[in-house]
Structure formats: structure tokens, C-alpha cells
Amino acid sequence: MMDVAAAPGHVASAFAARQQAWEDEHLSDLAARSYPARRRDFETDCGLRTPLQRDRDRIVHSKAFRRLKHKTQVFVSPEGDHYRTRLTHTLEVTQVSRTVARALGLNEDLTEAIGLGHDLGHSPFGHLGEAVLDACMRERFGDGFRHNEHSLRVVDVLEKDGRGLNLNDDVRDGILSHSWRATPPRTLEGMIVRIVDRVAYLNHDIDDAIRAGVLREADLPHEAISVLGDTGSHRIDALVHDLVESSDAAQRIVQGPAAAQAMETLRDFMFANVYLGERQNAEQSKIDRLLRTLFDHYVSDPTNIPDGGGAPGTDPGQRVVDYLAGMTDRYAVRIFEDLTIPDSFAL
What we know:
This protein is mainly alpha-helical. It has one domain (49-334): Orthogonal Bundle (Hypothetical protein af1432), CATH 1.10.3210.10. The chain is 61% helix and 0% strand. The chain has 15 helices and no strands. The longest helix has 24 residues, at 188-211. It is flat.
């Protein structure tokens, strides 16, 4: 068997030194560096990828990443092929974040890894599902559920049969801190993902809401649209340019006052009219019943969880939430139907 670690080729032998020299010459002094790797468990570096590229690859090849394609972004069970899923949202956040990082001379590989991993722990049924799991955990065990914290748990503990992905600390920090309920990320690259996550979901959720007939273009708040533009692509372009120019001037990742205020106005509008609107409220009771039924079923007898669920030695409540949060929307529906709908029988 070829042992590339013991006998690296010419390119692999020089890769790390060449990459470090390139970063010293081309990246901003404020950028995070790819070396040295800072992992929980020591590993010999790859000869053809930086430690951050390696983390990116581990995330993309993870089971949790593959499940994102069948998890809701906003609209539950949408009829149509063009609505966002958690996977397309993740790719959109990552693409825009890399654009910002490159423009500012920051570490694109770190930005990409954080972007790809930031929503790995999201529950089925989007934020509606997250709210139900949070309530279930608080009522039964006195502890809540937050998707950013669970994303970190996925990469630290749940992937690879409980061994985790052993990611770099800067990637882990960016995943945990992408939520605005968490402390800000320690790297500029992580802060890019934190802001771009909002830029992406607000504008793409507007697009999906209009496609679904929940909104009309004319419904959008005029004051925000007059600042950012009358199409999703115009608004994203304006927000990205503002983020780059404002951050370059401030030497930290910030939005300009006008752009930040316009985006906050759009966010308030979307919460009132879409995220907490009539259509979503109608779905809330269904999702609440579905997830509570599954939660109570598995808490009452954790042996019903396939393969024990979660990580070895985890307490029952955590095992149940690990299993439920990992479900795709359609898998959760299927299990609910198995539990609540009688099997057909032959006469």
C-alpha cells in the first residue's frame, strides 16, 4: 500500500511552506492563517491541502451535510422545485462569504469551512422545528436546544460514530458563533459568515415568499427597498459591496449604518409577515404535534432509537434530541406516520 505520509512526493513535501509563504504575501495582516492546525487531537497535516481545506472536505463528506438537502429552509413541504432548502441556503451563504473574504484579503478556506458547516445541526422543519425541540427540552429536562450549539455538537461528537470530525478551533468557533444569539466569532472570517447568513436568508426568503404567493413585490417596505434595490440580486449586491467597503474602512467586519438599518427593516418585515405570519402559524401546530409525538415516544423508551442514538454514554434527553435534530423533514413525517397511522390489513 502506498504510504504518502511516510514518503511524500516533491509537491507534497513543499506544499505547506509554499502555502504559508503565499498567505504571508497575499493575505491581510488581519486574516487568520491556515497553519499551524489547532485540533483537539493531533494529526499529521495533509501534503496537498491546508488544515482548513481538510476541514472543508470533512464537512462536505459528512452525513449531516448530505441530509441538508431534505431539510426545510422556511416553507414546509413546498410544492415546486425552486424553493430553498437548508443545503441551497448553505451553499449560497458560503459563496457570498467567499466573495467578501477574497475582496478583503482574508482566508477563503476558513470562511468556506465555516459557511459549509454553520447549519449542520439544524432541526427538521426549519426554525419552527427548532422552537419545538427547544420547548420540549426545557419542559422535560430544563435545558434548551439551539441549532448553532447543535451544529458544533455534530462536528465535535456525532459524526463518524461518535468520534467527531476533529476540526480546527477557528472553524468550530465560527460554526458556534454564526448565530446572533451567541458571542461574536473571534475571527474576521467567522464574522463574515455571521453577517452574510442574514444577508442570504432574508433576500432568498423574500424570493421564496413571493414565489409562494405569501408576498408581493409591492408589499416590501419602501424605505428599505429604496436603499438596497428592487430585486434580490440588486439587494445582495448592494449589501455585499457595503460590507466590503465598510469593513475595509473600519478594519473589522461591519455594515454601514444605512445598509444595516435597511436590512433590519427587512428583517422585521419578514418576521411579521412570513416567519411568524399566518401561513407559518398554520403549520406550527402540525409541526408541534409531530415533533412532540416523536419526542415523547423516544423519551419514554430510548431503546426505540435505532443504534442507540447519539453518542455513547449520553443522557436520555440528549440522545433523543440528537436523533430528532438529525432527521430530515420527510423522515420525521414517515416515522410520525408509522407511529400514529394504523397499518392496513387484509380482510
